[in-house]
Amino acid sequence: MSASSIKATLSRWFAAQALLGLSAVCIGVYAVTAWNFQVKQTSQLERQSELIRHLIRESQGQPGGGDLRHKFDDFFTTHPDLKLVLRQDSQVLYASEPGNAPARWSDTSFEQPVGAGQAAMQVQLSINVEEDRRLLTRLAWTLLGAVVLGSLTIAWTGALLVRRGLQPLKALTLQTAATGPAHPGRRIDPTPYASEIAPWIVQFNAVLDRAEQAYAQLESFNADVAHELQTPLTNLIGTVEVELARPRAPQELEEALLSALEEARRMSEIVADMLFLTRADRGVVARRSAPVSLAQQAWTVVEFHEAMLESTGQQVQVSGDAQLPIDAGLVRRAMSNLLGNACRYAVPGSAISIVIEQQAGAAWVKVVNRGEPIAPDVLPHLFERFFRAERSRTDSSHHHGLGLAIVAAIARMHGGQTRASSQAGVTEVGFSLAVPAAAKA
Q1: HSE (CB half, 13 Å, CA atoms) of 342?
Q2: Rounded CA gap, 373 and 345, in Å?
Q3: Are 352 and 366 in contact (CB under 8 A)?
Q4: Contact residues for 403 (Cβ-Cβ < 8 A; gap 6+)
Q5: pTM here?
Q6: I need a labelling partner for 39 at 20 to 30 A (CA). Which of 73, 174, 276, 439 fits?
Q7: pLDDT at 1 over 60
Q8: Sheet containing 91-95: order of strands
Q9: Using alpha carbons only, what angle is made at residue 375 by residues 372 and 377, rounded to the nearest 5 degrees?
Q10: How many Å apart are CA 114 and CA 89, to the nearest integer?
């Protein structure tokens, strides 16, 4: 079942609101008018009742006398909308003759004493309310017509207003259709639109920005993957083709197989790293163990790189410590990637520092080395996949530009972040590990 349009829904609500509102107003008008008529009739009956009492009191104990009857005849001749019936001891003493006009009577009754030793007189006075009833009937039909016509008018004008008010949405639909990957950089200007729609446009533009950034990263990623895999595949295919071109000795075939195995391992490492980054991008959270010493993990990494450090004459210093529940294997991998980069780019024979600091709910692991500074425009891209600051300085056969991207992924998996700085020949690259709430307590 398809949802109804905003125009139809608002138009129906306008009509219902108008019908209910006008009905309430008209019912109120009718009720107040009927009440006013009732008050007028009651007031008139009270006045005429007082006059009847006065005439009876003037009869001086002879209510059935001709003088009183004559006065009543004269009075009711000029008041055909009134009717009077006088009784005493169940005997009708006087009854006025109503006019021939259609009548609907409203009555009031009371007793009036007439003198000592005489029974009280029962007075029944009626007033003709037919004219008031006709006025109320005409008023009711008039108000009903006003309700119907008013509701139809408001519904029609409301539909026009809704249609006019929704025109910007139609324009927005056309502008939205003109955006997307086929029109990179095109955005919707929220200025001409109402304040209620502008935030949605801003959010839509932000979604477009993220989508275009994702498309650009995907295209760059695909190109980088193709480039990184092309070299080992070319080497592998070339080696096999050369060896198959003519008969080879067993030793030569063994050397060719070892070379092919090295290239296959390189491709396997690239694929494994890409799969790891994919898992991290999906929001996988690191499994945290019992609290361990970050300094101890750092010394373990230093021992792993001991051969490289001896070959370059470099020394490593570890300062600071923090006890955190972490995935020790992942954190050591991140430390190893940072230390490996520092060893390659630091001045031979210099000292490399691993600094561990605890700041505002997070522990930072920073690797500091001296060497050629990194350009400021390069720093924001260090943690991107397949990025190399200087490809000429990179041994592409062993390092394929995913090391720092993996560091950033491990930091995200621990709720942390990364940062890098390079000034006056000192380069500092680090990542943080968030302290879990349970560990804070």
Answers
A1: 33
A2: 10
A3: no
A4: 337, 340, 341
A5: 0.52
A6: 73
A7: no
A8: 91-95, 82-88, 121-128, 105-112
A9: 160
A10: 13
Token reading at 210: 């993220």
Give the pair of three-digit tokens for residue 25.
């107003």
Say yes or no to pLDDT of 385 above 80. Answer: no
CATH of 198-281, one of 1.10.287.770, 1.10.287.130, 2.170.150.20, 3.40.50.300: 1.10.287.130
- CATH number for 6-157 (one of 1.10.10, 1.10.3470, 2.60.120, 3.30.450): it is 3.30.450
DSSP characters for 398-414?
T--S-HHHHHHHHHHHT
The structure tokens listed for 271 are 């694929």
The closest alpha carbon to 434, from 330, 353, 355, 325, belongs to 325
What are the phi and psi torsion angles at 388 (to 5°)? -130, 130
Inter-residue contact 427 to 374 (CB < 8 Å): yes
Residue type, 253: L
Structure confidence by residue, pLDDT tens digits, 77-136? 888 888 888 888 878 888 887 766 677 777 888 887 776 667 788 888 888 888 889 999
Highest mean pLDDT pick, 146-160, 331-345, 395-409:
331-345
Q: Whole-angstrom Cα distance, residue 37 to residue 132?
A: 7
The Cα 320–Cα 293 span in angstroms is 10
333 near 406, Cβ under 8 Å?
yes
Q: Where in the chain is the domain with CATH 3.30.565.10?
A: 291-440
Q: Which residue has the tokens 């621990």?
A: 414
Residues of the chain with CATH 1.10.287.130: 198-281
Write out the two tokens for 238.
Answer: 């070339």
Homologous superfamily of 291-440: Histidine kinase-like ATPase, C-terminal domain (3.30.565.10)
Q: Which of 263, 198, 272 is nearest to 231 (CA)?
A: 263
d(CA 429, CA 420): 4
Please give the Cα distance from 253 to 260 (Å, whole number). 10
Where exactly does CATH 3.30.450 map onto the chain? 6-157
**Helix-helix angle 403-413:328-345, to 10 degrees:** 150
